[in-house]
Structure formats: structure tokens, C-alpha cells
Specification:
The chain is an alpha+beta fold and about 450 residues long. The chain has eleven helices and 21 strands. The strands form six sheets. Strands 11, 14, 17, 18, 19, 20 and 21 form a seven-stranded mixed β-sheet that branches. A four-stranded antiparallel β-sheet has the order 1-8-6-3, with no helix packed on it. It has a four-stranded antiparallel β-sheet with strand order 5-4-2-7, with no helix packed on it. Helix 8 packs across helix 9 and helix 8 packs across helix 11.
Length: about 450
Amino acid sequence: MDVLMPQLGETVAEGKITKWFKSAGDAVKPGDNLFEIETDKTSMEVPATSAGTLSQINFQVGEVAKVGAVVAVIAGAGDSAQAKSGAAPKAPVAPKEAPPAKPAAAPARAFAAVSASAPHGAVPFAQRDPFRVVMTPKRNYGPAKLPGGAVATPLARRLAGERGIDLSRISGSGPHGRIVASDIEGAAPGALASGPSAAQVKALYAGTPYEEVPLDSMRATIARRLVEAKQTIPHFYLTADMDISRLIAMREEANAAAPKVKDGAPAYKLSLNDFIIKFWATALLRVPAANAVWAGDRILRFAQADIGVAVALDGGLITPVVRNANTKSVTAISAEMRDLAARARDKKLKPTEYQGGASAISNLGMYGVREFAAIINPPHSTILAVGASRRAPVEAEDGSIKFISQMTVTLSCDHRVVDGALGAELLATFKTFVEKPVTALV
């Protein structure tokens, strides 16, 4: 039985082997952990799904395998006559990674067991093997149209994304001007969308000591997605100052009222960010046209508010999603965020815990940052950048000067989904909740 690299999310194309729990020749049974993999988002242990002997390991610790690649082979009673006779298995003829020209070879074996009564192309749930059938077929495998009417094949699009090449600068050599993989392979340096090459940059610092830091999968993915976001999303920004005096008082009162647990510690300790998540989710539900994402040729609007919250990691960041944040109490949001943040830093999040959502929050207030503008995380249509609270002088109604606790936030909007007036309405609604917290609860 072939053990394949599993699919960990729609945007994950490969994983790095970080640990083997078994060695070649070891007996395995269903449920035994075989190896551990790490992607740019998470890490997980991959178990065996059948009993036998681990006869072959194709990827060692530190090596990267593409999704669908044969990572190992388990020999057992159901193997060929050669395995039954005790003969040593032959070296695999195929390369470690499935050739791009035959992506359906591995899944085809899994589909062979479909009963005649099943609909055409369907696989009964009980017969599915997540470590053999790892790719979910998509309806559209055809070439994608680019600005100006040109088209590119799926392989060309993938290669261009991996190499930071701007497809709009490529002349296609395929039928009807279609951009094919060979066009990407022979692309001139001027087609790069991510700036000068490493050699060009290093030449500028020939006489300056420096250390080269190779990109890990997380940093490479962040770089690619942020370039994509700034190139393809028409950003605009709205900034507002907010009086958070009442919000601070509410937080202090809530924390003071927290019940004590066995060791005398409070059952919870709410942060300002917990309230911000709750209020932002409620604002999106009050302005439903903004609770949406761009989906190519349409807009998707949601009936619930799922909020991504940026969490800083070593060498990058990730945005775990608080689902149905509008329906949850602030204490529930606080507990969930502590759990998500802890597992995010350990790279233990499941793909379903950091994918999706219509908006996100990035808070740099704890670093003393007064205000900043965040980059939208596709396919989100908005992201709220939260700055530090501070004491600020303002004019009172009687003309005198008073000091308040003030916070500055900046809303980044995708103009394809959120127009200026709609973004202003959303930000004004959020400001009302922050300055008059009770209004968010009625």
C-alpha cells in the first residue's frame, strides 16, 4: 500500500517531513503514527490506515514532498506474490513525486472500489482513504483568461505563482496565444512580479557583510500572498479615532466580577481585543452588505460573522478564525482566542481553523503602534487595524479641554466589494459600539 502526502487545505501544495515514528522494516497497524509533516500553516502526525510492514521510506527528515507524492510503502498480506514469498521489494521505478502529466494515477486505484449502484464518479464515504485520495477535483480545469484576452494553462499559472512571474508580461506560445509551462520556464527576468532577483540584490552589497536567511515555507507563502493581495485587490483606507473610556471601564468591571477558581485565580481575564472581536462581528451583522467576500465573478454575503484574528509567530503570522463571533459572549471569545493562539504558535491548527471568514483584525496596540494600515488577506474584503490606546486631549461640549482614553483604527477595504460609503457606515457602526458598549448588546 502506498502512503501518500495528504492534502492539508486547498492552498497547501507540499509538506516537509519533520519526524519518522517508524523505521523501514517495522510492523505497523491501523492508527500507528508513521511520520510528522509541517506546512506553512500547521503540523500534523500521519497515521497508518492498514496493517503490515513499513517496507520503504521515500522521503527522509527535512525533505519536502508534494501533495499526492508516495512518501512510504506498507507491505502486507494483500500485497503481490513477491511480497508473500519474502523477496526484497524492488526499488520503485517511478520518481518520488507523481509526474504532472498523470495526476489522476494514484486516485484512480481508490476509485476502482466504487460499487455499481453509486452515482458516476462518486465514492461511498466508508471507502474513502484520506491518505490515498488527497485531491478534491474542481470543476474548472481549463485555461484562465488574463487581462487583454490571453489565457494560461493551470500548470503555467502554478509555475508562475511559485516563481513570482507576472503572467500579463508573458507572450504565450501555445495554440491561440495560450501561455504554457514552457513559456514560464523561459521567462525573461523582466517578467518577475516580485522585483529584482537575489543575484541582482546581492550584487548591490558586494562589499557589505551579511547573512543569507533561506525562506521557509511560511515566509515564502506570506510573501506570495501579500504580493498577490496588493496587486489584485483595489485597497482603500478609512481611519477613525475612538473614545474607549467606557470600554475600559466595562472591561475592568467585568474582570473584577470574574469568579475565582480552585487556586484563587480569576476564571477569566478579558482583554480589549476580546471586546473588539465581539463588536466588529456585531458591526458586520448590522451592515450585512460589508459582511462579504469577492468570488471572481460574484460576491458572497454571509449570515454569520466569522472573524480572523492575526497571531504573530516566529518568522510569520497566521489568522485563526473565530466562527459565529456575533453570537458568542466576550468570555467565550476570550477563551477560544487563547486556545487558538496557543495552538497557532505550536503549528497545531487544523486547516478549517484558519481558512474562511469575511474579515480580519490585526492589533499592534500592545507594541505601542499608534496606527497602521493592514493588507487584506484574500478572499476577505476588509481588515481592521487596531492601534494602541493613549490619553488624548479633546474639546468638551462646554469648550473646555478634557483628557480621554483614545484608540485609532484603520479599515482597509476591497473596493470591489465595499464602496467608500459602505465602508464608512461599517466603521461608524463599530465606533458606536466601542464608545457606547451597551448598544452592541441590545
